[in-house]
Amino acid sequence: MGPPKSLMFIIEVIEALESYFPLSFQESWDNSGFQVLFKHDILSGILLSLDIRKETVEEAKENNCNLIISHHPLFLQALKNFDYNFYPENVLYNATKDRISIYAAHTNLDIAPLGLNNYLCKKLQLKNSFMLENLKPVFISEIEKEQTFSEFIDYVKKTLGIPILKYVSSHNKPIKKVAICSGSCADYIYKLKSYDIDVFITGDVKHHSAIFAQENGINMIDATHFYTEIWSVDILFECLKNLNVKILKSTNDRIPWDYI
């Protein structure tokens, strides 16, 4: 048996988290912060997740966790009606019924200096990494030793645990300079053309963004939204692990589609 867990109010946990990822960092369109709030309840446990599904709330309840901290917000726009038979209203309904608070650390975690994209640079063992101040949260980095594009694709796929990915091949030059931005950042390619990068790693690459990259000499790796952002759970855990409270990682996070 370890030491007894500390008694904390839910709001105290969030104050600790926001010391790393202030809400002031989030993009103007974002909805980071509380999605459901019972801030004066005593914390019983924390469940960390990438996404919030109905199963996530059930998992929190089964494990006596009354706070879910996710990366993705439950909704980005105000709800104009409420039908608890459908997602995401059913999640709000069940969380409220069971007094489970939900908090999202989204673009504030992406943009923070020690946030998600910095983590990806370290995981991929890139060097000389820095965030573009005029293009947050994009990071520019370098590979320790030049690789062919094929070698680098295999390395990214293996390191991030991606079962299948797509890529855009624009040139056969050795890969050295890398831009990286987790999640749905493919449209940044239009502004990255002037940074002399060899490859851009992101997710959710669209048809026209791919053509633009191919025609402008930039290779792209679509490492998927899921596999570039699932690491947010590990980041959240590292930030909160010294609070001496029960913290679990959700087992319900999964990529939302299949391949044939």
TrEMBL record:
Belongs to the GTP cyclohydrolase I type 2/NIF3 family. A divalent metal cation binds at H71, H72, D110, H225, E229. This is GTP cyclohydrolase 1 type 2 homolog. Keywords: Metal-binding. Homohexamer. Signal peptide: none annotated. GO terms for cellular component: cytoplasm. Gene3D superfamilies: NIF3 (NGG1p interacting factor 3)-like. GO terms for molecular function: metal ion binding. It comes from Desulfurella multipotens. Transmembrane segments: none annotated.
